Amino acid sequence: MESMLNKLKSTVTKVTADVTSAVMGNPVTREFEVGRHIASGGPGLCWRIYNGTKKSTKQEVAVFVFDKKMIDKFLKFEKDQIIDSLKRGVQQLTRLRHPRLLTVQHPLEESR
User: Which domain of life is it from (predicted)?
Assistant: First the structure.
């Protein structure tokens, strides 16, 4: 019983350390307070959308997070095409300015 508890404790400690390092190094969590998951979208529902607030201005935002693990079921060539398409879409949205369109507050960035 004690060995099982020690194993559980070491697993929890490792997961906590991994999450802390990933979150602290993530620019999204440095610049935005990320709230609850409110929607999913895109091909295969790979984009997860969270409500949030920009820390510097207290402006309400929607945080879009793309989970690359969701496309692991595709071939490498298909994965590359999907990722390139997503990057192009974000770049196009960054250049567009209109009061009825989303504005990009932080450019697309890859991280853990």
Answer: Eukaryota
